[in-house]
Amino acid sequence: MFEMLDYRRDHRVVVLNRADAKVGLTGADIERVIRVPIASHVPSSRDVPISVNKGVPIVLDNPGHAVSNAIRELANGRLAGESAPQARGLRSLMGRRGARR
Predict the structure, then answer these.
(1) CA-CA 20 to 30 A from 60: which of 8, 33, 73, 79?
(2) Is pLDDT of 84 > 60?
(3) pLDDT digits (tens, 9 = 90+) for 4-28
(4) Is 96 strand, coil or helix?
(5) Residue 19 in contact with residue 25, Cβ under 8 Å?
């Protein structure tokens, strides 16, 4: 899809969401099929739909939750394996102006 949309390679980020060994897929399986490294992983949790049903985002309802931490790190530009956030964070990758080239 990235190729079809002509997204520059330096503006591509793959986030693995709600996939783990319980659903029969590993990160390695997905990377092998899509041939793009997974930059970040948001874990699966029953607490997310509970939070949604309450009408309160999990990052506010339970700030210390693993899902909240993963979302916060992604929003701050910290990708898997990095010890410090990227210079401009996720916003620089997702912005309209730089997304297509």
Answers:
(1) 79
(2) no
(3) 888 887 777 888 887 766 767 788 8
(4) helix
(5) yes
Q: Give the CA distances from residue 59 to residues 3, 43, 48, 76, in Å, rounded to whole numbers and listed in that order.
A: 33, 13, 10, 14
Strand 14-17 to strand 38-42: parallel, antiparallel, or no bridges (unpaired)? parallel
Residue 3 belongs to some domain of the structure: no
Which residue would you say has higher pLDDT here, 47 or 94?
A: 47
Q: State which H helix or E strand residue 16 sits in.
A: strand 14-17
Predicted local confidence at residue 39, as pLDDT: 86
Give the structural domain span for 74.
9-94
Contact 42, 79 (CB under 8 A): no
36, 12 contact by CB (below 8 A): yes
Q: Is the pLDDT of residue 55 over 90?
A: yes
Residue 34 in any domain: the answer is yes
- With beta carbons less than 8 A apart as the criterion, state whether 48 and 58 touch: yes
Total domains in the chain come to 1
Q: What is the pTM of this model?
A: 0.66
